[in-house]
Amino acid sequence: MVEKAVSFATKCHEGTYRKGSQIPYIVHPLETAVIVSLMTDDEELICAALLHDVIEDAGVTENQLEEEFGYRVAHLVMEETEDKTKSWKERKRATLKHLEHASKEVKILVLADKLSNLRTTARDYLLMGDEIWQRFNEKDKLQHAWYYTTIAARLSELDSFTAYKEYKALCDQVFGAGE
């Protein structure tokens, strides 16, 4: 099933790149899946990590995902999917509210996704400094700091995982400790 999800996600993200780079977009779902696989051997959760952006970014429907990968994978992806018709701030508030009562599996998926994003941001921040924020829809570093540090608080039950510790350390590196 994982190989099928890799193939599906690769096809969905073909020809797309990470913001502000020439890195193929598929690198992000692959990295997200690797991070999840270091926390669990749950194949459906790993598949959801591979597929987590196909509805949001590639026009795949929940029904298509359910037909291909089953109800649980489709449901996990939907729990990670943002409503792109809303503003950045509305989407981020909705994510944070959702995490207050989300399952451990969803929190693992969110941690992996956000850690992958934050690794890229931290790397590019070292190269570009504050200019990096210009590549995003939300250009205010303080808004990103609010979002990423609040994510950390919402995922604190995962603090025994190395991925969580790395996430917190990268938040401190990019946004400053205690911000």
UniProtKB/TrEMBL annotation:
PROSITE patterns: HD (PS51831). Residues 25-118 form the HD domain. Pfam families: HD_4. InterPro entries: HD/PDEase_dom, HD_domain, MESH1. The lineage of its organism: Bacteria, Bacillati, Bacillota, Clostridia, Eubacteriales. This is HD domain-containing protein. It comes from the Bacteria.
